Amino acid sequence: MADLVSHPDEVKVVSKRFGQGAANIDRYLELDGYKAVQKALAMKPDDLITLVKDSGLRGRGGAGFNAGLKWSFVPKQSAKPKYILCNGDESEPGTCKDRLIFEHDPHAVIEGVMIAGIAVGSHTGYIYIRGEYRYLSEIMQKAIRDAYTKGFLGKNIFGSGYDFDVYWHGGAGAYEVGEESALMESLEGKRGIPRIRPPFPAVVGLWGGPTVINNAETLASVPPIILGGADWYAKLGTPKNGGTRLFCLSGHLNRPGVYELPMGYNLKKMIYEVGGGIPEGRKLKAVVPGGSSTPVLTPEEIDVPMDFDSLAKAGSMLGSGGLVVVDDSTCMVKFALRIMKFYQHESCGWCIPCREGTDWLKKTLIRFHSGGGVKKDIDNIQYLSENMLGRTFCPLGDAAAMPTISIVKKFRKEFEEHLDGKPCPFEKAAVEQLPVLA
Amino acid sequence: MRFSDEFESRFSEMLTHYPTKRSALVPTLLYAQDEIGYLSDEAISEIAGRVDLTELEVRNVISYYSMLTTKPRGKYNVQVCTNIACLLRGGEEILDHCKGKLGIGHKGTTADGLFSLEEVECIGACSWAPAAQVNYDFHENLTAEKMDRVLEAYRKKETQ
Q1: CB-based contact, B133 to chain A, within 8 Å
Q2: Chain CA centroid to CA A177, Å
Q3: Is the bond preceding residue A395 a cis peptide, omega within 30 degrees?
Q4: In this complex, do A251 and B128 lie within 8 Å of one another by their Cβ atoms?
Q5: Architecture of the domain whose range is A244-327
Q6: Which of A190-194, A327-331, A428-432, B88-92 is predicted least confidently?
Q7: Topology of B76-159 in CATH?
Q8: Which fold would CATH assign to domain B5-62?
């Protein structure tokens, strides 16, 4: 379905089977499939956790938490069943990588779920796929059926005496459900409203049982780590940022696409060499480095290694790997407005700072962009956003606030150009939309 | 109320996946909607009974998920993404083009009941923007001309 691209700088670990028909289980087996899980079954669970911890694999959904460390939080003894939950609710604007994994290598996700299960002593895994990805859910359902037919899932897998079941689950359109506790609510058949923590899912998760929740790309990275070793994987990336990741390049680029590059790959190179630079000789204005929730970077800030710690130092986040490139023909007020419209639409409404904050910010930005803004709005947009930060049940409030604050701070001049009823300087048609000033 | 055999076998299998019945609710609602076109009162009541919930509890879930609808809509639901990656590559123009072509606005349905139009949030096609989904089919790297061909293909499918 979605076109594949490639670049000489790519290091293919998660994407090595893309385009090779590995959704077919026999083909997957030819390409080293289900070898890692057999190796894992022969290992001690604690060694498995240490291996993944040492590999420096960090959560690919956006938070960047060490995956092995997350697994280690699951209690050894539990009266309730333990669960593995694969988060395939990919919805962060700018992100389209899990889609390729499900399409081209669904068994790698199943195998990752199994290994996570063996590591924490769980016997059941769920793979949650967003509702819009119906064709992927069909591919995944077939992959699971095939794995059962071969006897790789179910009772006594690979003659080890270990039982493991994997089920798929589908969403029905909700960004918020990508947040781990909301994801569990959704899987339990409820509105996707986040749960208060503690207790954390590793202790009290699905139906009250200890639950490990990992992103699909994180889990698909596990089998190669088991086979290749922690050292090999860690060395592909930068210190504490092991391996590679799928970067989704989009926006104003000559060669957008999903590329697998080592952690710590230079952002500037990613834009100008891998992505082929900006079309029609236009200039770079801003970069969203890791999905719409991450603070934007200006052209002066892009000489930075793309790993979790370097991006944090640069005042942004690596997030979900969704890189959106914005050229100088773009109105940043409109860009901020579109981001806020999204978060306002997706806010579950459970907690007040997010529900009211995103709504007022959206209203203010609509009025502002159409020429009805006053000077104090600019400070107000920033002030409102800053007051959402850290004051919401789940990170959706932060996700709405962070890019907005960065845009107001870094592109204040563009906001000022919209003042006094002036039409948006970037839109030819804006004159007709001039509203009545309050 | 009767669903297809495929729905029934899927539903009964799904019930075996979870420790609670209601866990099967969200995917079941979507599959039911795919069969009927929307979640009718009758369907809601039927599904609520099957998972031991009240209709109110089921409606409460429906209203949360953007893909679920209790109102009938066109046979082909054209969902145009205008989120940031699509916005930068002409997603709004594609949406406007569809509005003009179909003569309907956001969440509108054509008089013949063939098409509905919806402006949607990110559908995970950012690297192939601008993009749209017609029901579950992805259409990517769109231009106005390509969008016309896409709509025409669905129209043709209907008359064949």
Answers
A1: yes
A2: 12
A3: no
A4: no
A5: Roll (3.10)
A6: A428-432
A7: Glutaredoxin (3.40.30)
A8: Arc Repressor Mutant, subunit A (1.10.10)
Sequence ranges of chain A with CATH classification 3.10.20.600: 244-327
Rounded distance between C-alpha atoms, residue A419 and residue A421, angstroms: 6
Pair of tokens at residue B18 = 């979870």
pTM for this structure? 0.96
Whether B122 and chain A come into contact, CB under 8 Å, resolves to: yes
pLDDT digits (tens, 9 = 90+) for A18-71: 999 999 999 999 999 999 999 999 999 999 999 999 999 999 999 999 999 999
Q: Where are the domains of chain B?
A: 5-62, 76-159
Nearest residue to A219 (alpha-carbon basis) of A118, A73, A323: A118
Task: For A25-233, give the CATH class.
Answer: alpha beta
B126 closest CB neighbour out of A98, A248, A348: A248
Q: Which pLDDT tens digit goes with each residue over B105-153?
A: 999 999 999 999 999 999 999 999 999 999 999 999 999 999 999 999 9
Q: Do A250 and B133 touch (CB under 8 A)?
A: no
Of B43, B71, B40, B29, the closest CA to residue A131 belongs to B29
* Residue located via tokens 């859910």: A137
Taking CB atoms and an 8 Å limit, are B122 and A256 in contact across chains? no
Domain A332-433 has CATH 3.40.50.300: no
Q: State the Cα–Cα distance between residues A64 and A179, nearest whole angstrom.
A: 14
Q: What ipTM describes this predicted complex?
A: 0.97
pLDDT, mean over chain A = 95
- Smallest CA–CA distance, residue B112 to chain A, in Å, is 25
* Residue range A377-406: mean pLDDT, rounded: 96
